[in-house]
Design brief:
The complex is a heterodimer of chains A (399) and B (804).
Chain A (H helix, E strand, L loop, with lengths): L2 H10 L24 E2 L10 E5 L5 H22 L6 H19 L12 H14 L4 H14 L3 H9 L8 H10 L3 H10 L5 H12 L3 H6 L1 H19 L7 H15 L4 H11 L5 H8 L4 H20 L8 H5 L11 H14 L1 H6 L4 H37 L1
Helix pairs in contact in A: 2-3, 2-5, 3-4, 4-6, 5-6, 6-8, 7-9, 9-14, 11-12, 15-17, 15-19
Chain B lengths: L1 E3 L9 E2 L5 E6 L2 E6 L5 E5 L6 E6 L12 E6 L3 E6 L4 E7 L4 E5 L7 H11 L3 E7 L1 H5 L7 E7 L9 E6 L6 E2 L5 E6 L2 E6 L12 E5 L4 E6 L5 E6 L3 E6 L12 H5 L17 E6 L5 E6 L5 E6 L4 E5 L5 E4 L6 E6 L5 E6 L3 E6 L4 E7 L18 E4 L4 E6 L3 E6 L4 E7 L13 E8 L5 E8 L8 E9 L6 E8 L1 E4 L2 E6 L5 E6 L4 E6 H5 L7 E7 L6 E6 L6 E5 L2 E6 L4 E8 L4 E6 L5 E6 L5 E6 L4 E6 L2 E7 L5 E7 L11 H4 L4 E7 L7 E5 L6 E5 L7 E5 L5 E4 L9 E2 L17 H5 L5 H12 L24 H13 L3 H4 L1
The chains are: A mainly alpha (399), B mainly beta (804).
C-alpha cells in the first residue's frame, strides 16, 4: 500500500480515528545540552565532527507529558458519562492539572483555597491563560469539548483568544456555537481563527443572515460593545485635554457612528466577517454560493446599507491609529468600501442566475447600482480636481 | 571518516626543484600535487595547526635537482624539516609561539658561501614572524607581532633576537638572492640586510621606504637593488637603487657619500633610493607581485582577476585576462616554462610561459557565495548526488561547482549566469537555489537578478541535463519568471520520475515534468509546467516528495498540506506550526514527515502522515535535514542555542563548535547518535549511499569544508579523502592500440540514420520551375519566355514522340 492510499484512508476515517500523540508538547532543549558529554576519552579539538552522548528528554517534559496523558484518559471517561459529570468536578480536575504542569515547568503559583461559585471560574481562567500552552493539542481539544458540553463559555473564549484551539477543532467549535447560539463567541472566532474553512464560513453566514428569535437576544452583548466604543469615542472628542488626539478621535467617532447606526444587531456581527483579514476570498466565494434566497436577500440589504452609508458620509475612512492611541479597537473591525464592493462582486458573480429569479431583490439591486454610479462619477470628478491640484503644486514648486 | 574541502590558497605554494611537483599548504597538512596531472600524490602530515610557511630547499647544482627537502612552519609553534619524496619527517623544532611567516636566507645564497658559513658558524638562521601570546593574555593593546631570529640548529629555540614589533604579525618577504628580507607595515616597507661573514653577533641593518597608501604586496628583484610594491589603489611602485646608503657594502661607503645631496626623482622624503617610478593599470588593490627569474619582467595581479606582465625597462604591458577570481599569489618554478597563479576561489592554475596559457587547474572546493541579507538563511546553495557522492555547490561568480566528496577533487563547473568576474562590491545576480535529482541526472537552479533602483529584477528557473560521460551539465530549459515576479523558495525533485516542484513566496507552487517522459523519446529533454497549485494564497516555503513518490507535501507558510502530484489534488491539511516552515523532508519511505521552522520561534517537528497528526517536536533551530532512502532514519543539522556557548562547564564539548548533527529514527524523539560540528550556520548534510552496504553521512560546513563518515561508528579519526591507489594509473592515461594510430572508428548506427534522413529529403522536379521559383532570391527570376514555354507545355500534354 502506498503512502497516497494510506493518507486517503486516513482522510476518509478522520472523524473516527481518535489518535493521540505520544509527545504532544514541544520538547524543551533547556535540559538536554547540559547533560551532553564526549563519547571518546580524548576528543580531537581540530576535527570537524566529534561524537557525543547523553541526549535525553528532560524530566520535566516527561512528567508534563505523563500528566497530560492521565488527564486526557480521565477526561475521556468523564465525558462519556453525560449525566454524572458536572461543572464543579470538571473545574476541579482542570485546576489540579494546570497547577501540576505549571509546577513541573517552574511557573510558580501561590497556593489558594478552593473557591466555589463565580470566583472559581475566574481563577481557572487565569490558570488557562498562564499554563495553557503546556496542555498540548490533544488535551486542549478535549478541554474544549468539555467546556462546550458543560456550557462554560468564558473558558471557551479564553481558549479561542489564546490560540489554544487546534486547526482541526474549529469545525466542531463553530457547529456547536451555532447550535447553542453563542453569537458573541462566534465573533471571537472570526477575529482569532486564521484558517476557517468554507463549511464554517457558511454556518456563520447562515446564522447571522437569518437569525432565530433566541439568537437575537444573545447578540445584545455585541451591540453593547459597539455602543460603548462609540460613546467612548464621543467622550474623547469632548475631552479638551486630548487636543493633540482630537482629530483622530473625531475620525474614530464618525467611523463608529457610521458602523453602528442603522444596522441591526445581527448585522453588527457581520462587520467582523467582512473586515477580517483571515477570511480567504476563495473560501468565502464557495460559502456565498450556497446561500438560499432569504439569506441572499438579507445579505444584499446589508451591503446596500453600507453603500448608502459611504455615500452619505464620504469623510468616513479607515482609522488605524485609533486602536493603538485611543484604545478604540473596534475601529479595526469596520469594513472598508473595498471590502463591501469586493463582497458584493463575489455575491453577484456566484449567484447571478439565482438573483434573476428573485424579483423582490431587483429593486434593492437597482438602488445599489444607483449608489455605485453616483460614487463612480464622484470619484471621476475628484480625480480631475486632484490632477489640477497636483499640477498647481508642481507649478508653484517650479516657481 | 574522510575529510576534505580544505583551502589550497591560505599560504603560497612551492615547486619542487625538478618542477614536477607542487607543494600546497592545505590546513594542517602539506599536499603534494603532480604538475603533469594536477592530481595529489602524497601529503606531509604532522602539524596540528594550519601550515603558514613552506620552503623547498633549492638545489645548488643541476645534479641535486632530485633532492626533495623542505621546511614548514605552522601556527602550532613548530618548525619541521621534511623529505617530501618519502614522505618523511626529519626534524621538529619547537618555537613555542605561533609562526605566521618564516624565511631562511642562507638557503638562497651562493654555494660557496653556504660551505663557508656552515664551517664557520655551524648554524642555520631563520627569520620568523610570530605572535607573542603572553601579550595577548594580558589583554592589553601592546604589539603582538614580532620579527625574530631563530637558530634552526637547535631543537628548542629560546626567545631569540627581536628585530621589530608590530600590532599584528606580518608576512616576511625575502629576496631571491638571499641578501635582503622585509615586511610591509601599513604605508611603509621595512628592509633588513642579511649579515654576512662568521660573526655570531652580527646585527642586521635596517632601512624604510615610505608611501602615501597602504601597501598590499612587495617583491625583490632577483639580482638588482630594485623593489616593487603594490598598494590598495592599484598602483605599482618601483624603487631602484635602494639601500645604497644604509645597506651599502663595506667597500662602497666612500663613493656613496657624494650622492647624498642629489635630488632623487620620485623618492619620498629622505628614503634611501635613487628613483621611484609609479605604474597604474589595476583598478583595485594589487595582491600579487613578483619578478621573473631573469629580472626583466614584473608580474602583478589583484582583485579584478587579471595577471599583468610589465616589461621593466619600458613599462609595456601584456595581460592574462578573465581568470575569474581575485589573484593571491604568483610563483615561478625552476623550469622557466612553468609557473603558477593562485586565486581566491581556491584554484591553482599552472601556466605555460611565456604565452601564459593555462595548462591545467588544481580545483579545490570554492568558497560559498556572499548573499544579500534578505537571502541569508533562505537560499539552499548545496545539493548532493547521493549515489555518486558528488556535491553541487554554489560559489561566487554565479557558478555551481561539482565536487567529488569521496576523493576530494573538483569535477567541473557550470556558470549559471554568463557574466565576467567584476571586482565591484555590489552584488547584481544571486543564485538562490540549486537542487539535484536523486540519481544525479538533472540539476535545477534559480537565480535572481536584483533590480537597480527598483527596475529590472528578474527571476529565472533553469533545468540542466547531465552529460553521461563527462559528468557535466548542459542547459536544457530556461523558465523566465516561473512564478511571475515572486521569488522561488524551494525546488524538489521526484524520487523516481522526471518531475520537480518549485514553490514560491508569491503563494503558488508549480509541478514540472520532463518532455522525454511524454514523448517517449530521449532527444527532447526540456521541461514543461504540469500543474499549478495554491492554498489560500499563502506563501509556499518548502516542499517534499514521499519516498515512494505518490504524495507531495507543501508548506504554506506554517500550514502543511498534502497533495497528489499526478492529479494535483489536495489530499489533506496536516496541521500548522507556530512559525513559517523552512524545510520539509520525508523520512525515507516511511510515513513520517520532518518539518523545520526558523523565525521567530525555531522548531523541529515530526508528523505522522498516516495518522494526520503531530508525532513530536523540539524547539531547535535546524539548518539542514536529510533522510536515508531505504529506512526511516533521518539526520538534522541543528544550531546550538547561544545560552550554552557561554556555559564554561561545557567548554570542552562546544569549544569552537556552534552546531550538532542529530541522527533520529522516525518515531523516537531521542536521537540515535549525536555529533558536535564546526560552522553549522550555512552548512548542509546528506546521506550518501553509492553502495547499498555502506551508508555514509556527508557534512559540508559554512566554509565548504566537509567530512564524510559512517553514522553507525564512533570513529573520529580524520584522514584525507584523496584516493592514492587509484592515481598511479591515471598518469599513464592516453589512447592505446588501434585508436592511437588510426583514431576512432566511425559509428555505423549514425551512418545509417544519416542515410535514412537523406532519403527523406523532398524530391523537387526540375520540369516545373514555377513551383520553386519563389523559394529563392528575388534577383534570380528566370526570363519570362522560358517560363511560359514550360508552363504551356505542361498544360497541353506535350507529345514526346514528336520531339524525338
Amino acid at each position: 500500500m502506498t503512502l497516497l492510499e494510506a493518507i486517503s484512508n486516513a482522510v476518509a476515517n478522520q472523524d473516527k480515528v481518535d489518535s493521540q500523540s505520544d509527545y504532544p508538547i514541544p520538547l524543551s532543549h533547556d535540559g538536554i545540552f547540559a547533560n551532553l558529554k564526549p563519547k571518546l576519552e580524548n576528543p580531537n579539538l581540530g576535527t570537524l565532527v566529534n561524537p557525543i552522548s547523553g541526549w535525553g528528554i528532560s524530566e520535566s517534559d516527561v512528567e508534563v507529558i505523563d500528566l497530560g496523558k492521565k488527564f486526557s484518559s480521565k477526561l475521556k471517561r468523564k465525558l462519556k458519562d453525560t449525566n454524572g459529570f458536572v461543572k464543579d468536578e470538571f473545574v476541579k480536575m482542570l485546576k489540579q492539572f494546570l497547577e501540576k504542569i505549571g509546577e513541573k515547568v517552574g511557573i510558580s503559583e501561590a497556593e489558594s483555597e478552593m473557591v466555589l461559585g463565580d470566583q472559581a471560574g475566574s481563577e481557572i481562567q487565569i490558570l488557562v491563560e498562564k499554563n495553557g500552552f503546556l496542555m498540548g493539542r490533544d488535551v486542549s481539544g478535549l478541554v474544549l469539548k468539555g467546556c462546550i458540553s458543560l456550557e462554560m463559555w468564558e473558558l471557551v473564549e479564553i481558549l479561542i483568544s489564546n490560540s489554544l484551539v487546534d486547526h482541526s477543532s474549529y469545525s466542531y467549535l463553530v457547529s456547536n456555537l451555532v447550535e447553542k447560539q453563542r453569537s458573541d463567541l462566534l465573533c471571537v472566532v472570526i477575529k482569532e481563527a486564521s484558517d476557517l474553512g468554507a463549511t464554517e464560513l457558511l454556518s456563520i453566514l447562515k446564522y447571522f443572515l437569518c437569525p432565530s428569535k433566541e439568537a437575537i437576544s444573545t447578540m445584545a452583548k455585541v451591540r453593547e460593545e459597539w455602543e460603548s466604543q462609540a460613546m467612548l469615542a464621543i467622550e474623547k472628542v469632548s475631552n479638551t485635554e486630548l487636543s493633540k488626539k482630537s482629530k483622530v478621535a473625531e475620525e474614530a467617532s464618525i467611523l463608529l457612528m457610521v458602523a453602528h447606526d442603522g444596522f441591526s444587531t445581527s448585522e453588527l456581527c457581520l462587520h467582523y466577517l467582512l473586515a477580517s483579514r483571515n477570511v480567504d476570498e476563495v473560501m468565502f466565494a464557495s460559502a456565498v454560493s450556497k446561500l438560499n434566497g432569504n439569506e441572499m436577500g438579507s445579505f444584499i440589504r446589508y451591503l446596500s446599507k453600507w453603500m448608502k452609508k459611504y455615500e452619505m458620509f464620504p469623510q468616513a475612512g479607515p482609522c488605524p491609529k485609533a486602536a493603538s492611541k485611543l484604545g478604540l479597537k473596534l475601529c479595526n473591525w469596520v469594513p472598508e468600501l473595498t471590502d463591501i464592493t469586493k463582497c458584493l462582486g463575489l455575491l453577484i458573480d456566484e449567484n447571478f442566475s439565482t438573483l434573476v429569479l428573485y424579483s423582490d431583490l431587483h429593486e434593492e439591486l437597482k438602488s445599489i447600482a444607483r449608489v455605485a454610479d453616483g460614487l463612480a462619477s464622484e470619484s471621476k470628478l475628484s480625480c480631475f480636481v486632484a490632477n489640477v491640484v497636483e499640477s498647481l503644486k508642481l507649478g508653484a514648486a517650479r516657481n | 571518516m574522510k575529510r576534505g574541502g580544505r583551502s589550497y590558497v591560505t599560504s603560497p605554494p612551492s615547486f619542487s626543484n625538478d618542477a614536477k611537483k607542487l607543494l600546497v599548504c592545505t590546513g594542517n597538512t602539506v599536499s603534494v600535487f603532480s604538475a603533469a596531472t594536477g592530481l595529489q600524490i602524497t601529503s606531509l602530515e604532522g602539524h596540528t595547526a594550519p601550515v603558514t610557511t613552506l620552503i623547498v630547499v633549492p638545489a645548488s647544482s643541476p645534479a641535486q635537482k632530485i633532492l626533495c627537502y623542505c621546511w614548514t612552519a605552522s601556527l602550532d609553534g613548530t618548525i619541521r624539516h621534511w623529505d617530501f619524496s618519502g614522505p618523511e619527517l626529519l626534524k621538529t623544532i619547537d618555537a613555542q609561539l605561533p609562526i605566521y611567516s618564516m624565511v631562511i636566507p642562507s638557503l638562497l645564497s651562493e654555494p660557496q658561501q653556504i660551505d663557508k658559513r656552515r664551517e664557520l658558524s655551524g648554524k642555520l638562521v631563520a627569520y620568523v614572524s610570530v605572535e607573542d601570546i603572553s601579550v595577548v593574555n594580558q589583554g592589553s593593546k601592546e604589539l603582538r607581532g614580532h620579527i625574530r631570529r631563530f637558530n634552526l640548529a637547535k631543537s628548542r629555540i629560546p626567545r631569540g633576537d627581536t628585530l621589530k614589533e608590530t600590532a599584528e604579525p606580518e608576512s616576511i618577504v625575502i629576496s631571491p638572492s638571499g641578501e635582503f628580507f622585509g615586511i610591509r607595515h601599513k604605508c611603509k616597507i621595512h628592509i633588513w640586510d642579511v649579515p654576512s661573514g662568521g660573526s655570531r653577533h652580527a646585527v642586521s641593518r635596517k632601512m624604510t621606504l615610505h608611501h602615501t597608501k597602504v601597501i598590499n604586496a612587495f617583491a625583490f628583484h632577483p639580482t638588482e637593488r630594485v623593489i616593487a610594491a603594490g598598494d590598495v589603489t592599484g598602483r605599482v611602485l618601483i624603487w631602484r637603487g635602494f639601500g645604497n646608503r644604509k645597506l651599502a657594502l663595506g667597500n662602497q661607503k666612500k663613493k656613496v657619500r657624494a650622492m647624498v645631496d642629489l635630488d632623487n626623482a620620485g623618492v619620498r622624503g629622505e628614503d634611501d633610493a635613487e628613483s621611484c617610478t609609479t605604474w597604474h593599470w589595476h583598478s583595485a588593490e594589487v595582491n600579487v607581485l613578483n619578478f621573473s627569474s631573469d629580472g626583466a619582467y614584473l608580474y602583478s595581479g589583484g582583485r579584478e582577476g587579471v595577471l599583468v606582465v610589465w616589461q621593466l625597462d619600458t613599462g609595456k604591458k601584456k595581460f592574462l585576462p578573465r581568470i575569474g577570481s581575485p589573484l593571491l599569489y604568483f610563483m615561478w618554478s625552476p623550469d622557466p616554462t612553468l609557473s603558477s597563479v593562485v586565486c581566491a576561489d581556491n584554484q591553482i592554475h599552472l601556466l605555460k610561459m611565456p604565452s601564459m596559457e593555462i595548462l591545467r587547474t588544481i580545483s579545490g572546493i570554492k568558497p560559498p557565495p556572499s548573499l544579500p541579507r534578505m537571502y541569508e538563511g533562505l537560499a539552499s546553495t548545496v545539493a548532493f548526488d547521493r549515489s555518486s557522492g558528488i556535491a553541487a555547490l554554489c560559489t561566487e561568480n554565479y557558478c555551481v561547482q561539482l565536487y567529488n566528496l569521496l576523493n576530494d577533487r573538483g569535477i567541473s563547473e557550470i556558470q549559471v549566469c554568463e557574466r565576467n568576474h567584476q571586482p565591484g562590491d555590489e552584488i547584481t545576480v544571486v543564485v538562490t537555489a540549486v537542487a539535484l535529482s536523486l540519481d544525479g541526472s538533472v540539476m535545477s537552479t534559480t537565480e535572481v537578478k536584483l533590480p537597480e533602483d527598483g527596475i529590472g529584477g528578474l527571476v529565472s528557473l533553469k533545468f540542466w541535463a547531465s552529460e553521461p560521460d563527462s559528468k557535466t551539465f548542459t542547459l536544457s530549459t530556461i523558465v523566465y519568471e516561473p512564478h511571475r515576479d515572486a521569488g522561488v523558495s524551494a525546488i524538489v525533485f521526484h524520487p523516481t520520475r522526471s518531475m520537480a516542484v518549485s514553490t514560491s513566496f508569491g503563494g503558488d507552487f508549480k509541478i514540472w515534468v520532463c518532455n522525454s517522459d511524454k514523448n517517449q523519446t530521449d532527444k527532447d529533454s526540456s521541461w514543461i509546467c504540469h500543474a499549478v497549485g495554491s492554498y489560500k494564497k499563502k506563501p509556499m516555503t518548502a516542499a517534499a516528495f514521499s519516498g515512494d513518490g505518490t504524495v507531495m507535501a507543501v508548506a504554506a507558510e506554517n500550514v502543511i498540506t498534502l497533495w497528489n502530484p499526478d492529479k494535483n489534488i489536495l489530499l489533506s491539511v496536516l496541521g500548522s506550526t507556530l512559525t513559517p516552515i523552512t524545510k520539509l523532508c520525508f523520512a525515507g519511505k516511511s510515513e513520517f514527515l520532518v518539518a523545520a521552522s526558523h523565525i521567530p520561534r525555531p522548531e523541529l517537528s515530526v508528523w505522522n502522515t498516516s495518522k494526520l497528526s503531530l508525532s513530536w517536536s523540539y524547539g531547535l533551530r535546524i539548518e539542514a535535514v536529510t533522510s536515508a532512502v531505504d529506512s526511516s532514519a533521518f539526520a538534522v543539522l541543528a544550531v546550538i542555542p547561544k545560552t550554552f556557548k557561554t556555559d564554561e562547564s561545557k567548554e570542552n564539548i562546544f569549544r569552537g563548535r556552534d552546531g550538532a548533527i542529530l541522527l533520529f529514527n522516525g518515531s523516537d524523539p531521542k536521537p540515535v547518535s549525536i555529533w558536535t560540528v564546526m560552522k553549522a550556520r550555512g552548512g548542509s548534510i546528506s546521506f550518501l549511499e553509492g553502495d547499498k552496504s555502506q551508508l555514509r553521512l556527508a557534512y559540508v560546513n559554512g566554509s565548504h569544508e566537509y567530512v564524510v563518515f559512517d553514522p553507525n561508528s564512533d570513529e573520529s579519526h580524520e584522514r584525507s579523502a584523496v584516493d592514492y591507489d587509484g592515481l598511479a594509473g591515471l598518469e599513464e592515461t592516453g589512447d592505446a592500440g588501434y585508436t592511437s594510430l588510426y583514431g576512432q572508428l566511425p559509428d555505423y548506427d549514425k551512418k545509417r540514420m544519416e542515410d535514412v534522413e537523406s532519403l527523406g529529403t523532398p524530391f523537387v522536379s526540375s520540369e516545373r520551375p514555377w513551383e520553386t521559383i519563389f523559394s529563392g532570391s528575388t534577383l534570380n527570376f528566370p526570363p519570362l519566355q522560358k517560363l511560359c514555354a514550360e508552363f504551356f507545355e505542361s498544360l497541353m500534354e506535350k507529345r514526346t514522340a514528336v520531339v524525338e
